[in-house]
Amino acid sequence: QVQLVESGGGLVQAGGSLRLSCAASGRTLSSYGMGWFRQPPGKEREFVAAVKWSGGNTHYADSVKGRFTISRDSAKNTVYLLMNSLKPEDTAVYYCALGSYYSGKYDYWGQGTQVTVSS
Fold this sequence. Notes:
- Helices cover 0% and strands 54% of the residues.
- It is an all-beta fold.
């Protein structure tokens, strides 16, 4: 059974940083990609970043390029999202997901963690 557990959300001032973590269990990750998505208040869920577990390829939404960095620790089966230069518009519930890096289809989701950026 796949389990994804996020942590690291919280309240931060604009310009600050946060690091989200997502610990995965129940699957060998080598053939998967892991992604971060977010859902701002009153809006649809949107893609943020993804990493291909084998090889470490990454890609980002334009809105976070240059500010956010996705990485993974194979020994810990954990993916991270380092968020710098945070803006109030980054406020959202952030979800990690496990699926296909190339198709963008994700089958397994975490429970989400709230990130609030105050101005």
